[in-house]
Amino acid sequence: MEIRHFVTFKKVIETGSFTQAAEHLGYTQSTVTTHIQALEEHLGGPLFDRMGRKIKLTDIGSKLLPYVKEVLDTYEKIESITTDGEDIRGDLKIAAPESLTVYRLEPILKEFRNNFPHVNISLSNATCGDNKRSILNGSADVAFVMMPEFQDSDLIVHSLLDESIVLVGSPDCSLNILDNSYKNQKISECFLANEKECSYRVMFEEYLGVRGIVPSQTMELWSIEAIKRCVRSGLGIACLPLMTVEDEIKEGRLKMIPCDGGFKQIFSQVAYHKNKWISPALSAFINITLKHAKDWSNEKITY
Predict the structure, then answer these.
(1) Is 234 helix (H, G, I), strand (E, B) or coil?
(2) What pLDDT score does 180 carry?
(3) Rounded Cα–Cα distance for residues 218 and 100 (Å)
(4) Reduced to 3 states, what is the DSSP secondary structure of residue 193?
(5) Which DSSP state fits 237?
(6) Which residues of the chain have pLDDT under 50?
(7) N or C: which end of the chain has fewer CB within 10 A?
(8) Closest CA to 79 of 65, 69, 95, 92
């Protein structure tokens, strides 16, 4: 058995398939199969039940998993050992939503990379719900989310900033789209939104539901930039974090639409598992993140 076999085994579990594990690890699918077969031959039984496209751990696989996590955690600690205390090495897996990646993380990543060039950074983008799950299942070391403040008995969570959420339309849109007169009515505007698990999409749909307001239709798009472009062209309205549309509002390319009663508070937050070993790389990254969060608070603009 080799460390790389354990890494492959864990990645298959995290991704749910041999194919996706191969893509994440940069292997061919046959290499992933070979690694799993090597473990199975050594242990004398199958690790997975293969049912069509789905895979499920066997009893042997389930018994092996906690030991694999322990071995890889220890291996990570060994990899971080250096003769020079300033020469931090290792891997850092970060999960974050698109909005925070594009509009918040750049200076954090830049400072971290400048200070610790020997740390390998892996950054994945997904919904806040997926990012939270990624630290619970161990597929990420640290995760950013933007959602109402939360606590979890398994997680250490730092609240970074109260993020303003705004409704925007094109420069020609009406400012009366969501005033009191529209309760229990259908509005003519199309709601432009990203994925269904997006926290501020859920928040806005709840806001409409409480007031009995129904958009004429909902159009799902793949990125914040795509949503902004469609809003600017007059295709509909969108509910987005202020940080993502601040420049467009200042320049008059988007118009902020008043919303009676306002929205729930949503915070950018960073979290990691309470039982995870805090490597020097992870510790440094968290410290840099918290330092930058203070700068965000000082620079925050309200409208």
Answers:
(1) coil
(2) 61
(3) 24
(4) strand
(5) B
(6) 83-85
(7) C
(8) 92
Domains of the chain from N-terminus onward = 3-79 (1.10.10.10), 90-163+267-299 (3.40.190.10), 165-262 (3.40.190.10)
Decide: 137 and 14 in contact? Cβ < 8 Å.
yes
- What is d(CA 77, CA 69) in angstroms, rounded to the nearest whole number? 12
**CB atoms inside a 10 Å sphere around CB 280:** 19
Backbone angles phi, psi at 117, to 5 degrees: -65, -15
List Cβ neighbours of 38 (8 Å cut-off, separation of 6 or more): 1, 2, 5
Q: Which residues contact residue 230 at a Cβ distance below 8 angstroms, ignoring those fewer than 6 apart?
A: 192, 219, 221, 236, 238
Cβ atoms within 10 Å of 176's Cβ, excluding its own:
11
Distance CA 175, CA 188 (A): 13
Written as one letter, the residue type at 40 is E
C-alpha span between 76 and 208 (Å, rounded): 47
For tokens 């400012």, the residue is 175
Closest CA to 193 of 231, 232, 215, 221: 221
Instruction: Look up residue 7 and give its two tokens.
Output: 């890494």
CA distances from 151 to 97, 154, 294 (A): 19, 9, 21
Q: What's the rounded Cα separation, in Å, for the pair 39 and 47?
A: 8
Residue 290 confidence (pLDDT): 95
The tokens describing 289, both together, are: 């993140």
**pLDDT at 76 (0 to 100):** 77
The one-letter amino acid code at 157 reads V
Give residue-wise pLDDT tens across range 249-286: 999 999 999 887 778 889 999 999 988 888 889 999 99
Q: How far apart are CA 74 and CA 300, in angstroms?
A: 41
Other C-beta atoms within 10 Å of 50: how many? 11
Tokens of 124: 């994945």
Residue 48: phi, psi to the nearest 5? -130, 145
